[in-house]
C-alpha cells in the first residue's frame, strides 16, 4: 500500500526498519499508537487523536518526545503529501528502546514514529457479529487507559473466534459479564426508540468517534443512554451498530445468527458524522 513515514526527522515512502530483538518494544510490547483518519482532505478530530497519543504514552510509563501540537503538524504535512483525494489511516506511535532491570521500561528511551497510508473507508454494507467468550480487562489487570498495543491480542482472539463461527466481528464483555464493546470498535444498540451504548467503566477506551457521535445525537435532540448493558439485551435489540475511527459508523446486520436491518439511528449517526466532518476546514 502507498504511504509516507516520518522517523528521526526524515520523511520516506519506504517503511523504516527501526526495531531489533533487544529493543524493549520488540520483546515486551511497550508500544502505544493512535489512529486518526484523513478522508478526501478532511482529518476529523485529528487534534484529539494526537493528544490521546501523548496521554497513552504517559499512561504506559513513557516520556513522550513530541507534544500533541508537534504530532498534529507532522500528521498534517504527511496527509498533504498523500494528496487531497486520499483516504488514509494516520498512526502516530511511541515505543520504548531500553528496559530497566528485567522488564520495566526506561522512559528516557522513548522513541516516536509516524505512519500515514492508504486505507479506504469500508463500504456502508453492514457486518455480522457473535458474542465471544473473551473479556476486556479491568484497570488493575492491564493499561486500559491507554491505546496500547498489548491490549489488542485479546481482541484479535475474539475476532478469530468470531471468524470460526462465520462472523466478521465479536462482542466482548467486561470482567463482570456486562457488554463492553466490539473487538475493534465501540458498540451501540437501539430498542423501542432509545439509543444505548455501554457506559465507560475503564475496561475499554471511550472512543473519540464515540464521543463525537454522542454529541451529535444530543445536538439533534436524540437521547443517548450510557449505562450498564446485559448481553441478553443485544438479542432483542431493534438495531446494533458500531463507531470507531477505522470505519466511523457501521451497522451490524446479523448478530448471533439473527438477521437485522440497517436501522434509522445507525443511518442518522453516519449522516450526522459526515455532515459535521465536511463542515470542518480541510487539511489537504
Automatic annotation (TrEMBL):
Class of this enzyme: transferase
Protein name as annotated: Probable branched-chain-amino-acid aminotransferase
Superkingdom: Bacteria
Listed pathway(s): Amino-acid biosynthesis; L-valine biosynthesis; L-valine from pyruvate: step 4/4; Amino-acid biosynthesis; L-leucine biosynthesis; L-leucine from 3-methyl-2-oxobutanoate: step 4/4; Amino-acid biosynthesis; L-isoleucine biosynthesis; L-isoleucine from 2-oxobutanoate: step 4/4
GO cellular component terms listed in the entry, alphabetical order: cytosol
GO annotation (BP), single: branched-chain amino acid biosynthetic process
Gene3D superfamilies registered for this protein in UniProt: 3.30.470.10, D-amino Acid Aminotransferase, subunit A, domain 2
Amino acid at each position: 500500500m502507498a504511504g509516507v513515514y516520518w522517523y528521526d526527522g526524515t520523511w520516506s515512502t519506504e517503511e523504516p526498519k527501526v526495531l531489533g530483538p533487544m529493543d524493549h518494544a520488540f520483546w515486551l510490547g511497550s508500544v502505544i499508537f493512535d489512529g486518526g483518519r484523513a478522508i478526501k482532505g478532511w482529518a476529523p478530530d485529528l487534534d484529539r487523536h494526537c493528544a490521546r497519543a501523548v496521554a497513552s504514552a504517559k499512561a504506559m510509563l513513557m516520556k513522550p518526545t513530541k507534544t500533541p501540537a508537534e504530532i498534529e503538524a507532522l500528521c498534517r504535512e504527511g496527509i498533504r503529501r498523500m494528496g487531497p483525494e486520499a483516504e488514509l489511516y494516520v498512526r502516530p506511535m511511541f515505543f520504548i528502546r531500553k528496559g530497566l532491570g528485567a522488564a520495566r521500561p526506561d522512559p528516557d528511551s522513548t522513541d516516536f514514529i509516524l505512519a500515514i497510508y492508504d486505507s479506504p473507508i469500508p463500504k456502508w454494507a453492514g457486518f455480522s457479529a457473535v458474542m465471544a467468550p473473551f473479556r476486556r480487562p479491568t484497570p488493575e489487570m492491564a493499561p486500559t487507559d491507554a491505546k496500547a498495543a498489548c491490549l489488542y491480542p485479546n481482541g484479535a482472539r475474539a475476532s478469530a473466534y468470531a471468524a470460526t463461527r462465520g462472523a466478521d466481528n465479536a462482542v466482548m464483555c467486561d470482567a463482570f459479564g456486562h457488554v463492553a464493546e466490539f473487538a475493534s470498535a465501540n458498540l451501540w444498540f437501539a430498542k423501542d426508540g432509545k439509543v444505548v451504548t455501554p457506559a465507560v467503566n475503564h475496561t475499554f477506551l471511550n472512543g473519540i468517534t464515540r464521543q463525537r457521535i454522542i454529541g451529535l445525537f444530543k445536538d439533534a435532540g436524540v437521547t443517548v443512554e450510557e449505562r450498564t448493558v446485559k448481553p441478553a439485551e443485544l438479542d432483542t435489540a431493534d438495531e446494533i451498530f458500531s463507531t470507531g475511527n477505522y470505519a466511523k459508523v457501521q451497522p451490524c446486520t446479523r448478530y448471533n445468527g439473527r438477521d437485522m436491518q440497517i436501522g434509522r439511528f445507525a443511518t442518522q449517526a453516519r449522516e450526522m458524522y459526515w455532515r459535521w466532518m465536511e463542515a470542518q476546514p480541510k487539511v489537504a
